[in-house]
Design a protein that fits this description.
Helix content is 39%, strand content 23%. It has 266 residues and is α/β, with parallel strands linked by helices. Helix 4 runs parallel beside helix 5 and helix 6 runs parallel beside helix 7.
């Protein structure tokens, strides 16, 4: 029987972190090698993980005593994930990142680290979203410029960044299909007398409330008809399973690029 893959979860007290920990503990493919969170959350994580795995607010300390084959998984915040990436580089350990809200400069830093460290980053670990990233640009091309494109996303009230990383990624694919620069054509708010909608524009709007895991809808609005493509995430386990699938796959790859879901699915 193949040995279980050791996993260290960074941000273990967050919504995604708790979900990943639970799946790892229930799995025969993985073993929980450690949990990391900030000092304020370590006591709560320790109470939940008594006898199950080491817990620390110091990733470097846990990494030093991690078993061979360990993979790090981080669903936290950009600055925390960048720190995790630097630790992964020093320790020569693979790192899977599901954090959103990175700036262009921060993503460039991840790309640089990925030149000699196994790094995987995706704004959405869902298989369904990954398929949509491939299909939607083809739909945009087939429909042509007479069809206006808009993106709407809904998430729980605790989400800190807006629009979601997934919505931005979908919009980037749509813009590329039309030969546009996504940053030049994206509009994330309309208020007052804004004038007629330009042809070269993609609205990306965010709704927040309740405990919505994630809903993304792409609209193609043309003469006399409208097409709506919607993805509903029913549970965080969907993303957690994608992250674990990436954690199993990443160690089999070679350094030199920042991997993502399309690479895994290919």
């Amino acid at each position: 029987m193949e040995q279980a893959r050791p996993i260290i979860v960074i941000g273990a007290n967050g919504r995604m972190g708790r979900t990943i920990c639970d799946l790892v503990l229930a799995s025969q493919e993985f073993t929980l090698a450690g949990c990391v969170d900030n000092a304020a959350s370590v006591a709560e994580v320790s109470l939940r993980m008594v006898g199950k795995c080491p817990v620390s607010d110091d990733l470097g300390e846990l990494v030093e005593r991690s078993p061979a084959g360990t993979v790090l998984i981080d669903f936290t915040a950009p600055q925390v994930s960048l720190h995790s990436a630097s630790i992964a580089k020093q320790a020569h350990l693979p790192l899977v990142i599901g954090t959103t809200g990175f700036s262009k400069a921060e993503l460039e830093t991840l790309n640089q680290i990925a030149q000699d460290t196994l790094l995987f980053w995706s704004s959405n670990m869902s298989i369904g979203i990954s398929v949509l990233r491939k299909v939607l640009p083809e739909l945009a091309k087939a429909l042509g410029p007479q069809y206006d494109m808009e993106v709407m996303e809904i998430h729980h009230k605790h989400k800190k960044d807006a629009p979601s990383g997934t919505a931005l990624t979908l919009a980037e694919g749509l813009a590329a299909a039309r030969g546009w620069d996504a940053k030049e054509v994206r509009v994330s708010g309309r208020d007052g007398i804004v004038g007629e909608r330009p042809t070269q524009q993609i609205g990306v709007q965010a709704l927040r409330g309740g405990d919505v895991v994630g809903v993304h809808t792409v609209y193609f609005m043309g003469p006399g008809e409208r097409i709506e493509v919607t993805h509903h995430a029913h549970s965080r386990e969907n993303f957690a399973r994608g992250a674990l699938r990436a954690a199993q796959w990443l160690p089999t790859q070679s350094v030199g690029k920042l991997y993502s879901m399309p690479d895994l699915l290919a």
